[in-house]
Amino acid sequence: MLVNSLIVLFTVAAMEVFSVLAHKHIMHGFGWNWHKSHHEPRTGWFEKNDLYAVFFAGVSILLIWLGTEGRHPLEWIGAGMTAYGFLYFVAHDGLVHRRWPFKYVPKSGYLKRLYQAHLMHHAVEGKEGAVSFGFLYSPPVAVVKAQLRQLHQGPLQGRGRGAAKAQADEQAPS
Fold first, then answer.
1. What pLDDT was estimated at residue 164?
2. What global pTM score does this model have?
3. Residue 38 DSSP code
4. What does the pLDDT profile of the chain (174 residues) look like in tens digits?
5. Helix count and strand count (H, E) for the chain
6. Helices marked H in 23-122
7. Angle 75-77-78 (CA atoms, 0-180°, nearest 5)?
């Protein structure tokens, strides 16, 4: 059971690394057609970007099924992907984008850093010039601010989703 638990925990951590790379190079690259909806005002409960969640849920279901059919430890890798998806839903869709009714704005610590960094990700329009591609991890806010300044030669001027909040955060001490 210890090995299976370690596989799940390793998969959750590996999914964050994979997600950063996929977010930066796929979603902000050739997959922008789906992800673009996430950087625009939402007009309903769902957005085209949610197709990524459906796709990865399908992959995790397939892995769990294959594992229960004897291809161990795929079921535990699928369980780790499912756990990551749940954490993503709570932190990204819930905390940052308020896609569920729990309204909480973190005032300090890890959750505040995650919240501010993702708002800064949305502070620019389009797929170019974004920073902080993680969903459950973010570099310190000062690092993300410096990256934005470097990419955009000065203070934030973006009009993208989250820009006003990110601009306010730009002025606030870290």
1. 47
2. 0.85
3. G
4. 999 999 999 999 999 999 999 999 999 999 999 999 999 998 888 999 999 999 999 999 999 999 999 999 999 999 999 999 999 999 999 988 988 887 888 999 999 999 999 999 999 889 999 999 999 999 999 999 999 988 888 665 554 545 445 444 444 444
5. 7, 0
6. 32-35, 50-68, 74-88, 109-121
7. 65
Could you tell me the two tokens for 50? Answer: 């949610």
Q: List % helix, strand, coil for the chain (3-state, nearest 5).
A: 65, 0, 35
- What is the residue whose two structure tokens read 């964050």? 16
The residue among 114, 96, 116 whose CA lies nearest residue 42 is 96
166: nearest Cα among 139, 144, 134, 150: 144
Collect all residues with Cβ–Cβ distance below 8 Å to 74 and sequence separation of at least 6. Answer: 63, 64, 66, 67
Q: What is the pLDDT of residue 9?
A: 98
Label residue 106 left, alpha or beta by phi (over 0 means left) and psi (-120 to 50 means alpha): beta
Count of CB atoms situated within 10 Å of the CB of 91: 18
